[in-house]
Amino acid sequence: MITLLTSDIHQKISGGNIYNSQLLAVLQKHQFLTSLEMIVDLNTLAFQTNKIYIADGILIQPELDVNRFKNHQVFFLIHLWPSKNPALAASMREKLIVVEKEICQNFNVIVTGQSSFDYITLGLGQSTKNTLLLQPGIPDYWIQKKVYPKLPQKILYLSNFIEGKGHDTLLAVMAKLNIESVAVDCYGEILSETYFKVFNRSVEQLGLRNIRYKGVVDYKQINPLLLEYDLLLHFSEYESFGMSCLEAMASGIPIVMTPTGNYENYLAMGIRGVLPNFEITEAFSQLKKIITTEAYYQEHFVSLAHFDCPTWGKTFEPLLLKLKP
Q1: Phi, psi (deg, nearest 5) at residue 321
Q2: How far apart are CA 266 and CA 262, in angstroms?
């Protein structure tokens, strides 16, 4: 029996939760008995010797006592190392780093993005010998966009509303552009009411009638939704991977994104749209050029012609081999 442990955030739609759900689906397809438990604290869980546990990194806390389950079969699934959160106080980050080092030393680790993989050596100073890098995939039914307008008019911002997701940059850039013929639709869970209220207030104050919040989209509808748009923006300040960017590119939708998540691999593939920094002036300059210059926009969607993305089944093959008796 394999049990995936996570928090009640699993009830929301996010890249991490989609990844977790797809992992369970692939395990079940390969005849593994699986279950999911939403818990509050790993320190209080009664671990069973006949189970394999996959613990979501969201459950890593500064006071986590890893000694109590060292003798059990536990994998840690890391979407983003908690200590990498830029909003953390220094004292909290130091405590988390101690726990994260112990996890790397004593358990199998699954990381879902290159940045989280690199952080093990560069940030934590630990070996990656017990680490699997399993980056997200797409379902095998995914469809690609075939016909593009001369210039993008419908723009998508697909990201949950929580601190660090870059909606403030979006508003600053769109206010500076001041082009009402281009519309930006925002989709995502509201994970921070305060953040969302600031967003709405700013939209009103800046008079940005071409920016609209459209609600939450189910994972099964993401590909059809993407195909309705000409461009995806992603101005996040930090990502483990950035699934919305992957999903957009796998759908043939050009992107303009900050240098987070899997951006180095995208640059290596020759994909256009990765910004060199987080500056608003740079984002403004690139977006203005892409929505006003036909040849420049064309370069972006042509660069996606040979973008290759694995299916979820392919993504989890290394883990399946490790779990098989």
Answers
A1: -65, -35
A2: 7
